[in-house]
Amino acid sequence: MISKHILLPTDFSSNARNAIDYAIQMFGKEECIFYILNAFEVGASGLSSTMAKNKNTRLHQAVKEESERHVKSLIEELKTNNENTLHQFKGLSISDSLLNAVGKTIIDYSISFVFMGSKGSSAVKEVFMGSSTVSVIKHIDFCRLVVVPENYSFRIPEQIAFATNFEHVYSKVELSPLFNLANLWDSEIVIVHVNTGKKITPHQETCKNLLEERLDGVRICFKEVPGESKISDAIQLFTSEHTAIGMIAMVNYWHSFFEKLTTENVINRVVFQTKVPFLIFPIID
Questions:
Q1: Distances from the Cα of 266 to the Cα of 61, 99, 141, angstroms
Q2: What pLDDT sits at residue 241?
Q3: Which pTM was predicted?
Q4: Among 55, 143, 177, 234, which one is least packed by beta carbons within 10 Å?
Q5: Which CATH number fits domain 159-281: 3.40.640.10, 3.40.50.10420, 1.10.287.3510, 3.40.50.620?
């Protein structure tokens, strides 16, 4: 069995730890290598020349050692609490911005999923688990990302709500993260389409039929949701009314539909207000 490589960024806050615990439980049946990443920066400037200079300072060395010490301590704790023989833990302390560190690690270690919290446990930590999470969503468009709400406790996702407008012809490869997560716990995929009052075009009908074909092998159902003043509100309302839904899934590039969601502050509305984990996966060009 080939191990999944899962990236777990942390600032050592309780919210980051919650996302880590969720990921470990989500992949309890899978052989995984979990990379515990702490990204740190020394100095106010993000200029590479300044960063290079900072790496030679005592302050940089002290911060680096502190990061490595905390990562090592966290891994020891995770190993103590997790006796799953399918799991391995490796630590990474990287002197860089979180965005750069995440991007490089995804490529260097062939990462399959990144798990992050939706916001921090304090005003200070909010800088990391708030704006940085949004930054990762906006810029890391080549890896699957799962955002875990603050204080969310793991439960088997009986259903995964996949919101789409049937405008894109998904390939099996694009849908593989959704398919694989549904297979993990025999979850049903609820394909949610928000009805805005416009008739579905022949192209959308074709996409809908192909979507059913591509997801053959897992349980699926289609749900038409009445449109609210904002499409994202309709998705949130539907999710809140169906307690069996344990995850929301969307793609991070959604043509006109995703652009419309973006103008509705979908990042704030879904990422920060969702009560269940949020899977965002890429379109493969």
A1: 40, 20, 16
A2: 92
A3: 0.88
A4: 55
A5: 3.40.50.620
